């Protein structure tokens, strides 16, 4: 297995596991089984839905689909826009948890890494 393919496979696994955990935590919070404090509803719903796209990107990377990169990039851009809207919510005095700031920062970083790996992986095809 080439280094490029290995990196793509690792990124695929990261995307699928990260997506699965996102769906699990978001779903349990939405269903009321997990109290996360001052939840910002649009962030919670977006992140939960985005988890399905992380998994889809991961599957696409794993099987070598060319659409994995544009999808990963689209999810990253959408996440950055939601993060910006969250920032506006905070600036306007809306209730929030600091862990949301950390979680959104982590999401952006992970998605940027996955998108980068998808871009490099698609160059080798």
Automatic annotation (TrEMBL):
Protein name: Uncharacterized protein
Annotated keywords: Membrane, Transmembrane, Transmembrane helix
Transmembrane segments: 42-64, 71-92, 98-118
The keyword Transmembrane appears for this protein: yes
